[in-house]
Every structure is written in C-alpha cells, then in structure tokens.
C-alpha cells in the first residue's frame, strides 16, 4: 500500500483574505432564516468560504459577526465571506428577487425537487433559504420562493442539522456552477 503524507498548511495553496475578496464567486447567496445556533452559523460561513459563495444573508434571530462562539466554527470565514443582516427574511427574499435571483427553500414540501435531480443554469443567480433548527423555513418564506429543494434521505430520520444541510447543498451548487 502506498504511503500517504498529509499536506502541510503551506502546501495547500490557500487564498489570502485579499485574494478571496477578489476571487470570482459562485452565483449563490445563502439565506439563514432564524437559525439560532452560533455553531451552525459559523459552520455555514466556513463552508461558504470553502466553496466561494457570494454572500450570506442573516435574518431574524440569526446572530451576526463578530461573536466568539461563531468564530469557533467559522475560524475566520466570518471575515472573508460577505454578509448582510435583515430583520425579516421576507425582506431578504424580496431584495434577492428584485436582483434577479432564483430562490429555493431547502425544505420538504409538496412538489420539492430532489437535490440530485436539480438542474441549474450557469448564467443564472441562485439563492437558497435554510431554516430554523426546529421549525425549518417559515411557510411565509417558502411561499415567496420559486421552489423547494429536498435532500433525499433513506433512514428513519428525515431531517439533517442545518449546517450539514448547508454543506451538502452548497457543494451541489458549487459542482454544478463552477
């Protein structure tokens, strides 16, 4: 069996903060609708940094940077990824709509598109709305979206942690848009 050597940090070709800010982003905005956990918010920032997400919209009770508990999982991504705060998620969704975004709630709904069946157009801009850890995306917000995306699940549990969901969804969008 071949010996595998872990890379050193200096070998990973990581972008500097300045290079990240100037890099071409994927045309994706992540909207967090009343996400309460600072660890989940931080993890979404970190994943968004890893896959060059354009911006994060933080809405309602979702905390905003800087915050030491958020930093534990974001590890500085809260300073690289652009973000904007809205008191009401509906206002965030309406702003994105006027800017030409196609909006999807990440939610189990009648007529949801299964994530593995999602077809994206490379010349369009997209936004995904992820909801509260207990209640999900508010129905009023779902009603404002162009559709819902559902992650296929096969076990006894049919829900995932919001930061895990964000990671899966952001990865899928990155694969289809890069």
Automatic annotation (TrEMBL):
Entry GO terms, CC: cytosol
Signal peptide (UniProt feature, chain positions): none
tRNA/rRNA methyltransferase SpoU type domain segment(s): 28-170
One Pfam entry name: SpoU_methylase
UniProt entry keywords in alphabetical sequence: Methyltransferase, Transferase
Superkingdom of source: Bacteria
GO molecular-function terms, A-Z: RNA binding; RNA methyltransferase activity
GO biological process: methylation; RNA processing
Listed InterPro entries: Alpha/beta_knot_MTases, rRNA_MeTrfase_TrmH, SpoU_MeTrfase, tRNA_m1G_MTases_N
Gene3D superfamilies per the UniProt record, alphabetical: 3.40.1280.10
Protein's name in the database: tRNA/rRNA methyltransferase (SpoU)
Originating organism: Phocaeicola salanitronis (strain DSM 18170 / JCM 13657 / CCUG 60908 / BL78) (Bacteroides salanitronis)
